[in-house]
Design a protein that fits this description.
single chain, alpha+beta, 2 domains, two-stranded antiparallel sheet, 3 helices, 6 strands, about 20% helix
Length: about 120
């Protein structure tokens, strides 16, 4: 499974990513800000940016790189709790964060992905 490469746009957040719980005008110019991206089923990822007047960064995008799948319960660690969640949804079909490979079924392939990243934590 290839993890998604996520980019966040300051100019139109809803088109590529989303800046959550950030009111317009709460950035301080010239100061370093931590931007945390949370995607269901993946470890959170943080990027630090210095915001200046105009487009930020120069391209107007923040590249979060590849995300790590397996954090089913969104607690920033891939562990037995996530494995338990996968087994709770065993053989389920349709959209669920326990479907780590995106094939619309929770099965051994999802367990394999979880084990590949077991005990990893989000670097926040």
């Amino acid at each position: 499974m290839v993890a998604p490469n996520v980019t966040n746009s300051f100019s139109s957040p809803s088109s590529l990513g989303e800046v959550i719980n950030l009111a317009l005008g709460t950035f301080s110019y010239g100061v370093s800000h931590d931007l945390v991206l949370r995607v269901p089923g993946y470890l959170a990822k943080k990027q630090t940016q210095i915001i200046s007047a105009g487009a930020n960064p120069s391209s107007g995008l923040t590249d979060y790189g590849d995300l790590t799948p397996g954090d089913v319960n969104q607690d920033d660690v891939i562990n037995t709790v996530d494995l338990s969640q996968v087994f709770n949804f065993w053989n389920a079909t349709g959209a669920t964060t326990a479907d780590l490979n995106g094939d619309s079924k929770v099965n051994t392939f999802d367990v394999g992905i979880l084990y590949a990243y077991f005990n990893q934590t989000a670097a926040l």
